[in-house]
Amino acid sequence: MQRRGSASCAALLLAPALLTAQSLRGLVVDGSGAPVVGVVVQMTDSTATTVFSRVLSNARGEYRLVAPAAGSYRVRTLRIGFRPLVSDAVTLAAGQEVTQRLTVDGVVFALDTVRVIGRNSCRSFGDAGASTFAVWEQVRTALTNAQMTVGARSISATTVSFARTLEPDLRRVRDQRMQVRTDFVAQPWVGITPDSLHRVGYVTTDAENATNYYAPGFEVLLSDIFVTDHCFKLRRDDKRLGIEFEPAPERKDIADLRGTLWLDRATAELRRLEFRYVNVSFEQEDNARGEMDFVRMRDGGFAIARWSIRMPVLELDIRRGARNGAGTRITAIRFSGGELSLARRGADTLWSRTPLVVTGVVMDSLAGTPLRGAYVALMGTQLGAVSDDDGRFSMSGVIPGEYTVQVSTASLDSVGAIHQSTIAVTDGATPARIRVPTASQLAATLCGSTARKATGIVFGQLQGVRGASNSDGAEVTADWTEVTLGGASAPAPRHVSVRPNATGQFRVCDVPLGIAITIRASSDSSGADPLEIRIPPDGRFIRADVLLDKPAPAIGVFAGMVLADSGKIPIADVEVTFPDLARSATTNERGAFRIGEIPRGTHRVLARRFGYGPLDTKIEIGARQTVVRQILLSRVVTLNPVAVTERAVLPLFEEHRRMGLGQFLTREDLAKQEGRTMSAVLTSLRGLQIRKGVSNYAWVISNRGVRAGAGQATFDIFDLKKGAKPGCYAQVYIDRNMVYRARTASPSNPEPLFDINSIKVESIEAIEYYAGPSQTPMEYGGADSICGVLVIHTRRTP
Fold this sequence. Notes:
- There is one protein chain.
- Helices cover about 15% and strands about 40% of the residues.
- By secondary structure, it is mainly β.
- β2 (about 40-45) and β3 (about 50-55) form a beta hairpin.
- The longest helix is centred in the N-terminal third of the chain and has 23 residues, at about 130-150.
- It starts with a helix and ends with a strand.
């Protein structure tokens, strides 16, 4: 209570002093006597050099200036487009108030008549003539007006500020945060003092090794220090006149700014400030910059309508500077900025911005028809919209920039896919046209070269007990029985096993239509009840979500490949059986098999096929263990040597050779190299390298080198012992049959590599090689051909 009383007394003591202060008041009018709003009115000393107070004329043209003491003063007016007006000296006695009418009908300052001089002015404007100084006065008038508008704290502003992080190439928004707030109008950033910037520069590094970029505020731009530290010259374009600044020569070792303040040539109003950071690293000088756009409000005051500062995020890169020490690289580009949406004084709207709206249409990429109900979202933001009956969508409140658009449709949802594209958002952006593929179009892409029109695809989500994905050590298997020989009798057990991704999503390709399929799933710690599904004969896709809510069963899996012991060529239709358990499987065209639900323990295994000697052995299976083996069978029928009397006809080979996309070796080419190893012969092909192992083993790899997620083979124990190492391994076909797929395999289900030296040059009719997907013909193409495709045609009897 006592403290509050003291404050009241202090206020009463100050009141008489305020009432008796000496002041100047009056109206600012133009030549016709009409009030002029937004004029900067300053009270100076009698020499018009020192400013004691300043105000902006209000909507009625009124002003009031308070003098610090009795004495002689002058009044100076600053108005955009006019030269400054200085009044005669006025003497104020103590407590006296004098009324003075100011008429700003001086000489119009026409920027169109300003002569642009190409030389710089450093330290003073006199060196470059009166033109540069006159333009700078117009800039100072606008900046002073804006600074006073900020300081008055009488205008309420609604702003949208943002912080964005983009990829180094600026093509994708990683993250974006937006904030809408209403407060008194203010300058967008609070900088350090002009004296501090003079000493330490505009880019500094703090104790935590973080880089700080400082932008020039009003106080800095209006300071004498800024003029002292920079050189100035005039620039012009079709509609603007600019005053360009750069650091003075003696500041070449201090991080500074180079930029331009642009004025409208017709009105002399300040429009834009743009600047870059100099005397910094190459990465910073090339990428760090800032900008501010100015607008004049209805009351004559200036406001900052848009602002942005761009900052590269640098990271130490020892590899890049291997020769000259550690270097740096850009890992991201950060933007901080915002826009003024609305400015008000009370209920009076002084300025408003038309919201930026993104519009477009979503269309079926095949039929070209509009897609209804598609959800369109801008990645990195919270903005999204749903397309209407005409496929049209609209999103408001978007900040200009380049965005990745993510589109979801009912068709894509059915296959667990989304469509992404890139759009640029600008003030004059045209409506976006987004063409989205259907699930059917994606089938071949999703399943690579194995997708066939007469088969279906199973999509699903593997979930744990609490609904979270539980894909660690998980495997999903689809089993079914096909009836061959026209449905007479011979049942053929088939299966496909896949691994879900990190979020538990999986897809099984090439499952039959109209046949009961059993989906089984298990992980290291849990299992699920078998799920039976059936794709309709006229369908293509089916969804099968699996819940892992059972204890992991004490069973294991036996899987692998059956190969001929000569040439290591896969053998199809081999029956692999556990005779004591009545469990069996038949190898597919790649020689692969899988038998699940094998109780733990040691069991007898039998592998047999007509024309090959059987394998009869024992194998030990552990609980929740997948045992992978490579089974080699020997032929029991020996054919007489084949006498080749003429060149075989290979129409498809000749067609590919005419196209000229790959590289080709004919029988004539190979005949000259008979007696050499295949690895030696293939070294003549461009884009192909040979990875040699122990003994005489050799494999084909791409000269693309090691690529994460592309051709990164997981080897079985046999290939590791032969000397296989990580690499981009090429696909291999023999007589149009794929013998090595070249896709990433799981550690528990590796794919054996194909030894090219297992085939003799004498037995080959022709060879094709394609270095990548863009060259590979449709017959051998697919998502797994990024590491190259080697096609071998063996010799046949005439």
